[in-house]
Amino acid sequence: LKLSVPSNDLTISIPQAFGNSPRILFPAVPSPFVAVGNNHGDREFREIWDLRSKSKVGTLRGKLDWEDKMTALSADGQLMAGKPGFRDVVEVRSVKTGRITQTINLPGPFQDFLAFGPTGTLLIGKIGDKAIRLYSIQSGEATLEIPLPGHLDRDSVGFSANAKYLVGIDGISLLLVML
Predict the structure, then answer these.
(1) CA 120, CA 31: separation in Å to the nearest integer?
(2) Contacts of the segment 5-14: beta carbons below 8 A, 24+ positions apart
(3) Which of 4, 51, 65, 115 could share a disulfide with 84, CB 3.0–4.6 Å?
(4) For residues 156 and 80, what is the distance between their CA atoms, to the nearest angstrom?
(5) Distance of CA 141 to the CA centre of its chain
C-alpha cells in the first residue's frame, strides 16, 4: 500500500507495522503536515510528514490506546493529541520525542470533538453538552467555554482557515464563534 500525491512528487510507503486500515490525519486548519498510520498495537506506529519538504518530521511508536475519532495533529506538525479509551483526559505528545508534554483533565470520559485550535489551544467537546471548551496546551486549563444553542453534530465542527472562527452545525443552525 502506498500513499501518493497526483504529481507523484512524494510517495510514502505504508509498512505492515502501520496496522490494519492505517489512518490519515490532517490538522483542523490548513497545514502542510499529515500523520499516517496507527497506534493500536505495540508494534504499530504513526509517521508525521511535512509535505512541503517531503520529509518525515517524527514518529509516534507503540500502543497509545487513542480513540480514532479523538486524535488531532497541530498545524505546525509539532504535536499530536489523543484521548485514551474511557479515561477523562487528553494526552498531548511531542511528535519529535513521542513524550507526553501535557495531560488535560476533562469533565468526563465521553467526548466527541478534538482539534487543535488557534495557536496553543485544543478544542474539546461532547455531543449533547451545552458548551464546548477551548483548552490551553501550556496550562492544561479551559480558557474559553463556548455556549451552544443546541447540540453539535460530531463531524460538523471546524475552524476557519485562519483559525479565528469556530464553525459548527447544530441540526438546523450554523454556529459561528469568533475566537
Answers:
(1) 15
(2) 5/51, 9/54, 10/49, 10/51, 10/54, 12/36, 12/47, 12/49
(3) 65
(4) 21
(5) 18
